[in-house]
Write a structure and sequence with these properties.
Length: 314
């Protein structure tokens, strides 16, 4: 550099600044590692090495897992609020690639997938300086709304197609229009199968009870089917039990829960609570849960249809 002359600047300062701002609002590096790991798993069976098992189940698994990891990386970029749910699935797929494909792309694709999953799961958004809680919520909701407006062609997968049909934003219940009072102690509910339609995570609110307000998780859906439904009350000396072979909730269905646990697709067991929400704000409509156990503070629905309804008391 000559004395007295300004230092040369990098080209395209405007696009680089916008890219840097976009990158800092999502687990960018975790998504990048997942995309690279998935691409490596896809390319390995196409390489000319003769030691690869590129045909049969090994080749199909490599293509499927590689494509799924690429989609998971894109989810981390364009739907960062679903990072916990996506990262757990990407981690399981990365570990599975070791036995289902060519040793996880000779360990390279598997290690990239594991590292990307860890970065995506551990990433936490930082609040902007000088912004309060309301501003932070508006920023997150704006990011979610922007992600929902992405064209479905960006993520050419059935999962994204299901999400693109309608992406409501996660939000808390408004303060002035709360639900009716709930029982002092939430009854326990168990069901062998919980199949919601249009399942959305609506946030956390407080329900009035005889002992004061209680924090609950709010789940909304258009309809839900339950099998082997069992409800047991725990509020008072006498206990009441409600059982049904099947229970159908239709219309504007809202569940207020203090705890909700089950196994997604019968494989991945998770627990939801007002203090921990390991799930994206929108669940694809074909997802179901088995071995569900919940503490149900309140449920509202336009229509309830049951078969084999039984009521007992102790």
């Amino acid at each position: 550099m000559l004395l007295g002359l300004p230092a040369p600047s990098l080209p395209l300062p405007g696009p680089r600044a916008r890219l840097r701002a976009w990158r800092r609002t999502r687990p960018f590096w975790g998504g990048l590692l997942l995309v690279l790991g998935g691409a490596e798993l896809l390319l390995v069976p196409l390489s000319p090495l003769t030691v690869l098992v590129s045909l049969g189940l090994g080749g199909i698994a490599a293509i499927g897992i590689g494509a799924a990891l690429i989609v998971a990386g894109l989810f981390l970029w364009f739907l960062p609020q679903a990072r916990a749910y996506v990262s757990v699935h990407a981690l399981l797929l990365s570990v599975l690639s070791f036995v289902a494909t060519n040793l996880g792309g000779f360990l390279v694709g598997m290690l990239l997938g594991i590292a990307g999953s860890a970065l995506g799961f551990g990433w936490t958004p930082l609040p902007e300086e000088g912004a309060g809680e309301e501003a932070g919520e508006e920023t997150r909701e704006g990011a979610a709304g922007g992600a929902s407006r992405l064209p479905a062609a960006v993520l050419p997968v059935v999962l994204l197609a299901a999400l693109a049909t309608g992406t409501p934003q996660a939000r808390a219940e408004p303060a002035g229009a709360g639900p009716p009072a709930a029982a002092r102690t939430p009854p326990t509910v168990t069901t062998s199968l919980f199949a919601p339609r249009g399942f959305t995570l609506a946030g956390v609110t407080e329900l009035p009870t005889a002992d004061g307000p209680r924090r609950v998780l709010v789940l909304r859906m258009a309809a839900a089917s339950l099998r082997d439904y069992r409800l047991h009350t725990r509020d008072g000396r006498e206990e009441y039990a409600l059982a049904a072979d099947s229970l159908e909730l239709r219309g504007d269905v809202t569940l207020y829960l203090t705890r909700f646990s089950g196994c997604i697709e019968g494989l991945l067991c998770v627990t939801f609570s007002p203090d921990g929400l390991p799930a994206p704000p929108v669940i694809p409509p074909f997802v179901f849960m088995t071995r569900v156990s919940a503490e149900q503070a309140l449920v509202t629905s336009d229509v309830i249809v049951t078969e084999g309804l039984r009521l007992g008391a102790s």
